[in-house]
C-alpha cells in the first residue's frame, strides 16, 4: 500500500520549491503541487520509482494547462510557452538549490519574523497549518493569516526568488539560521504523531551544508551545522525498541553515529579557532561535550550554558541551564532557578519541574506538575513518556 502521507511529507517542500522556480509564483506552485498529489492518490496503485519527479512533472503540466485557460494577455501565453521549453531555466543566484532559494525568499526582511518561520515551515517542511499553530502555541487562524499575508507581500513587493548577493546575505542570515533550526527541531521532536520526522532532520542538515558552502567564513553557519550534526548523531538511540522516548542519560551510546560526531567536533574546533562566539556555536559546543566520551561533563556543560545566557538570554535557555545546574549543584538549586520562569503552553517547563520535585521527594507536587505537562504535550510519544514517569511515583 502506498504511503501517501510519507511521500507528501518527504517530497512536498522540494516540489513546491522547484515549481516556484519554474513558475515564479509561490501560490500557483503550491496549488499545482497539491493538484498533482490529489491526482497521485487517484492514479497510483503503487508509488513510481521517483515520486517527487512524477509530482513535479504532473504539477508543471497542470500549471501549463491552467495558464492556457486563464491567459487573457500575451504575457501569460509567453509564460506558458516558456514552461514547455525543455531547457533548464537560467540560474538566478550563486547556487543551484531550489530549497535554499526558497528559504531566502521566505526570510526576506520585508516579512515579519513570525511570518518567515510559518511560511518556511509550510512551504519547505510541508507542515499543515494546525501543526505550525501547535508548534508556536497560537490559533490556527493566526498562522493561516500570516502565511497568506506573507505570500501576498512576496508577490506584491516583487521579492525575487533567489539567494541574495554577498551584500544582502548578512541581513538575512539570522532568519535563515532560525528557520533551519526550527525545521530540524520539528523533525527531531514533531509537534504531533510520531516523535521523529527523519526527512525534516536530513533536509535541514542538507540545507545547512549548502549554506556553509555558500558562507564558509561565517562562524554561526558553521556552528549551526555542527549543532545539527551532533544532535542528529544521537537520533538512532533516541527511540527504544517499542517506539518509546529514551532520554540522553539512558541512551545506548554505541548506537550513536560516530562519523557525524567526528565531523561535528571538527566543526566546533573550527569555530573556536575563528574566535567569534555566537549562540549556535555555543549550543554546538554543549552537544560536543555530551558526545565526548562515555559520560557528560556537566560542569563544562554548565559553564557553556552560562556563556549562552550571556549571549542570548531567554526563558528556554534558563530552563535548559537548570538541567545542568541539577547535575552540578543538585535539584533544589535548579528548582529555585526556574520557579519564576514564564513559558505559557511549553510542556518542558512543568516536565522539568516534575522531575526536580520528584528527586526532592515532593511527590504530590511532582504529580501535579506531570499532569500539567501531559496536558500541554502534543506529541504522542512525549505524552506516553510523561505518563510513565508519573505512574512510577508513589
TrEMBL record:
Gene3D superfamilies recorded: 1.10.1740.10, Tetratricopeptide repeat domain, Winged helix-like DNA-binding domain superfamily/Winged helix DNA-binding domain
InterPro entries, sorted: DUF6596, RNA_pol_sigma-70_dom, RNA_pol_sigma70_r2, RNA_pol_sigma70_r4_t2, RNA_pol_sigma_r2, RNA_pol_sigma_r3/r4-like, TPR-like_helical_dom_sf, WH-like_DNA-bd_sf
Segments forming domain RNA polymerase sigma factor 70 region 4 type: 102-154
GO MF, one annotated term: sigma factor activity
Domain RNA polymerase sigma-70 region, residue spans: 8-71
Keywords on record: Sigma factor, Transcription, Transcription regulation
Pfam families reported in the protein's UniProt record: DUF6596 (PF20239), Sigma70_r2 (PF04542), Sigma70_r4_2 (PF08281)
A single BP term in Gene Ontology: DNA-templated transcription initiation
Residues that span the membrane, as ranges: none
Domain DUF6596: 172-271
Family stated for the protein in its record: Belongs to the sigma-70 factor family. ECF subfamily.
PANTHER family: BLL6612 PROTEIN (PTHR47756:SF2), BLL6612 PROTEIN-RELATED (PTHR47756)
Name of the protein in its database record: RNA polymerase sigma-70 factor, ECF subfamily
Taxonomic lineage from the root: Bacteria, Bacillati, Actinomycetota, Actinomycetes, Pseudonocardiales
